[in-house]
Amino acid sequence: MSRTAEVFEVLSRGGFICSNSVKPGGRYLYQYVEEHEEKLTDTFFEIGFRLEAGNNYYYFSRESEDQQSRERKVVKALRWLDILAFFSTYNKSLCRGARITPHEIAAQLEINSSLKDQLAGLRKGSAAKNHAEQLDALFNDLKREGFIELENETSQTWKLLDVWDYMEQLVMAVSILDEEEGEE
User: Fold this and answer.
1) What pLDDT shows up at residue 177?
2) Dihedral angle, C-alpha 138, 140, 146, 152, nearest 10 °
3) For the segment 32-45, what is each residue's pLDDT rounded down to a tens digit?
4) Domains in the chain: boundaries
5) Whole-angstrom Cα distance, residue 165 to residue 144?
6) Which residues, including other chains, have CB under 8 Å from residue 77's CB and lie 6 or more apart?
7) Distance CA 166, CA 177 (A)
8) How far apart are CA 137 and CA 143, in angstroms?
9) Rg (Cα) of the chain, in Å, rounded?
């Protein structure tokens, strides 16, 4: 498979390509996109995708989307806001590149009722019964979305990827809009 096809496969499924991927293949793919950004931008634009560059990550957007797609994105964005609130409650200084473990968060759940309530809110409707299962499900969701990667299987250490910035920028955009509406 060509690198362009690999890039398309990752990005067309809503994924991200990050410079600080734990996987060497992910870092190489980022370098490939960075080196061929102009050509890839033109290629993907011809088939209806816009190659977008973030802060050390790439993703796709579309020129036009139907109402249902936009609604799904809003629901997903609201979930990301809840996830960021949860992790901010756990550790306000978390940022891309940080390492976290479910074990450390579980320890905080025992002494922080707000964190416990937020986790319960994130896992509503989930089959997870205890905190460990809830955290595993949350980490698996974040992995599937491309925000974290498992760095050390033995210690269950996860790394926040550069695309964590995408969620943070979303929160900042919402905060700015809220402030501007309050001024009117």
Assistant:
1) 54
2) 110
3) 999 999 999 999 99
4) 3-62, 68-182
5) 17
6) 170
7) 17
8) 10
9) 18
